[in-house]
Amino acid sequence: MSLSEHLMMSEEVRSAIEGNKPVVALESTIISHGMPYPRNLETALEVEKAVRDNGGVPATIAIIKGVIKIGLNNEELDFLSRNKILKAEQVKGHIRIVPNKDDLEPVSSVPKNNILKASRRDIPYIISRKLNAATTVSATMIFAEMARIKIFATGGIGGVHRNADKTFDISADLTELAQTEVAVVSAGVKSILDIGLTLEYLETLGVPVIGFGTEEFPAFYTRVSGYNVNYRLDTPEEIAALITVKKELGLKGGVIIANPVPEEFSMDKETIDKAIEEALVKADKADIKGKDITPFLLAEIKNITGGKSLETNIKLVLNNAKLAAEIAVKMCE
Ligand code: PSU
Ligand code: MN
What we know:
This protein has one domain: Indigoidine synthase fold, CATH 3.40.1790.10. It is built from 15 helices and 11 strands. About 5% of the residues have low confidence. The chain is 45% helix and 13% strand. Manganese (II) ion (MN) binds next to loops.
């Protein structure tokens, strides 16, 4: 089979790409593994709307029954949102990568599907076995580039985990940013990661980190991290120009556009730091490792903050979708 037989675009996305219209890629891990049902589905729809409201065409990406889908319909978004939620004990031992195992009781009675989490290394297995998977930042970038989509909006990117000196846990998002030519709009990285090491690693990989209207690299739930971006730009035009120049020079890899959560939705740094510490201790005790860590921590932080972190998460994703659409529009001019 050729690439085109593995990859299916919606009609809307195909004609937008062919007509050089502004298309914004969106990831699906955030739907299947980053937020609980039904807020995840509502958010996926709202994010697509935010792209449209700002002049763009949304292209949410996932793998459905072994086919790479670029641009999902509402039925597919609904399917992805009803992912099985497993208890910590079930997550242990990487049970999540076992397909069609229905001896696991979902915590809630609604979610029922088995949606894997795909980064670069998971793609050949998932596609050859015709499985379903949500795409992380790395896999979404790969598929966006295949589809010639130049910009992508997410919540936060993966990075260097705390204790990476012992665990070697560094998200595949970073090496993807080094080699795949898609600009990624995010609200920075969560302090579940080591933000300083993440920025050092990005420098080594040659990935520009641009702050939108800020000198400080944002820490997802809060605008404050104590670390600086490489450069600050204040308009979508300036960012579009940087992305275009990088392409003209043939410099491979992505660009990180760090877009702080709007002030009114930003969480208090002390509150969120405490919640993160608590969640990290719990993950360590439950011996959660590898790809299960990020979804586990997100769910724990949500519980500890009484749902507040989820609301902030939603607002910042919407904010990123808006900016990505604005940049995409400028890139098409
Ligand atoms: N950050 C979030 N929410 C998420 C993720 C990151 O705030 O859902 C997801 C993204 O899809 C990212 C992935 O690519 O987690 C990184 O996973 P890991 O840390 O296992 O590389
Ligand atoms: Mn990891």
